[in-house]
Amino acid sequence: MRILTTEELADLKVLPYNIYSEYGEKLFSAGEVLTPGKLLQLKSLNKIYRDDEEIFDAKSENLADIDYINKKATDDINIEDIETEESYINKENTLDSSKKNIDDTQDDEDNLLNNNDSIEDIFQKYTISSQKKEKVVEVFDMYQNQNNLRTNNTINNADLINYQGPINKTAKITPDNQIRIKASFYDAINNMRNRSIKETVDLFLNIRNTILQDIIYSHEDFTYSSQIKLIGEYQKCHALNVAILSGLVAKRMRMSESQVYDIVLAGLLHDIGKIRLDPDLINRHIQTLSKQEKKILQLHTNIGYKILSQEMKLPENIALIALEHHENNDGSGYPIQKSGNMISKESKIVHICNYFDNLSFNRTQYIIKSNKEAVKMMLKLGTKYFAPEALYVFVNMFSYNDTQNFEDMIL
Q: Could you give the angle at which helices 257-269 and 316-324 cross, rounded to 10 degrees?
């Protein structure tokens, strides 16, 4: 196995070797047509590898000449595949031109080069290998219970109601529902390895439906964002808060019901890549991390995308949010430094809600004591970080005078 660059693939039409991820997963097989969409997917990954030796037999009269293979592939490509990939590549057509580094990225790489540990060593140190499972194709309904959403409660497992933690006494969400939703999410995340893909996805769909039924569609308006905030451990509450806020913003922006469904599910799963990282790393405050550790932490976007798209088989628009939710409007984010319209509308919404909740949990470099201070900070960062339309809707969705201290919300 040796490391591979996407530049080496640029002129190929057919892959002459297998391509693997940094986790050893086979991404594409020798003989596959290399479409523009596949090439963009490979560009989004941190590292890719190829077989040490080419799969095609160099002694074969027809396969010895790669040019012959590429010419034959061009003749065999299905026009429908080209149209599908063109619709994707048009969306990403400025990818290469937007590769400006985020702050300190070059310093990070310099430090890595001067360190005794390689990036592979550091990655192995801070990541948890996923257990290899036999792949089973399972079918599930992304919009289960949609017609009866507002009348059926989809989470009824009393065994989950053993959660011990604080309750937000100012919330319009009932204490019972606060406990149920937190316990259900924590159980779903912690027991992913013990369940089938279908069971895991169904659990998250049930949590999504509960959020939609009991929060998004049960109230026309919330005066303060503190009225919907779940409080307690960051790992139990953050994704839920992002899902709730994102759903409310999407609803306020008059997005379709299916889009609201998808964005709530994506909010729940936007940080799922962190389950493959060392808890000691993800639980520490960002200010205590070294530059190398910050670089490892940023891998959760790539890992999350692969979990959602390859393992859980969720639609691309949902998996893409896991990849893009740290991309800033000016191109200074990660992992690909996308900017402006290159970032999906749904990702822009989740990005704002993710940052807002991180502020309220004091998981950024800024010290915030109330939601009013959090909104003030987001306005200061402005359109450098956030998409203008989504930021405008978010800021105007709640009263600006939400001055209650976070500690005063605890029951």
A: 50
What's the domain count of the chain? Answer: 2
**Which backbone phi and psi does 152 adopt, to 5 degrees?**
-110, 130
Are the C-beta atoms of 90 and 41 separated by less than 8 Å? no
Asked, for residue 325, whether it belongs to a domain, the answer is yes
CB-CB contact of 323 with 305 (8 Å): yes
The answer to whether 216 and 251 are in contact (CB under 8 A) is yes
Q: What is the per-residue pLDDT across 32-52, written as a single tens digit (0 to 9) for each?
A: 778 766 777 787 677 788 875
Model confidence pLDDT, tens digit, residues 337-372? 999 999 999 999 999 999 999 999 989 989 888 888
Using CA atoms, how far residue 14 sits from 74, 140, 313, 403, in Å, is: 9, 33, 25, 59
Amino acid in the structure at residue 227: Q
Structure tokens at 201: 């996805």
Q: Which of 93, 127, 151 is the last residue of a domain?
A: 93
Distance CA 257, CA 187 (A): 27
Give dist(CA 268, CA 135) in Å, integer: 24
Cis previous bond, 335, omega within 30: yes
Write out the residue range of the structural domain in which residue 312 sits. Answer: 111-409
Closest CA to 76 of 37, 35, 42: 35
Say if CB 185 and CB 165 are below 8 A apart: no
